[in-house]
Amino acid sequence: MFRALSSTTVRWRPIEGEGLEHLTLRSLNNALGAAIRAESVLIGERGGSAYGVRYRIDCDAGWRVFSFIIETTEGVRLHLLSDGHGNWRRADGTALPQFDGCIDIDLAGTPFTNTLPIRRLGLTRQSGTARLNMLYVPFDSFEPTVDGQLYTCLDDGRLYRYEAADRSFTAELPVDEHGLVIDYPTLFQRLSPETI
User: Fold this and answer.
1) Which end of the chain has less neighbouring CB within 10 Å, N or C?
2) Does residue 2 lie within any of the structural domains?
3) Which domain of life is it from (predicted)?
């Protein structure tokens, strides 16, 4: 359904306010086998406050997150690790049982993390709706919480519906051949390759 991942770089801008995200996505081979790394830098504003954030997400070949680091330009940092089966811990080894069952993550301020469940689940129109608990990290506090989300494939490999579990927000997300969001109505717009 999706192309095999090659190194790719994309940029998004927020629909409202100023900002920009520059993301590089690439395949890696390490001691554990094939892996995927996403590295990104974002600048923007939310709720009247400006921010500068960088993150790195490491996944296995099945798009299960096993590590992520997110850090502000002021040095506020969060580094969490997973076994890929929904068991989380801090970098110092402290278990985080409140996130048991959260296989995917959702970082506020980026459309990239929508790619994680889309690629991991390989949803088709026949799959129905997937109900997920996400480890959600807001940019204002870096205090993770559990967030219920729903994903439905509307057009195989091309269009997916994202819904908040409480139905407070819904968006139809067109994606490219890598499963990366092209347009996120009301929130983000992808810049064309010619502008990168």
Assistant:
1) C
2) no
3) Bacteria
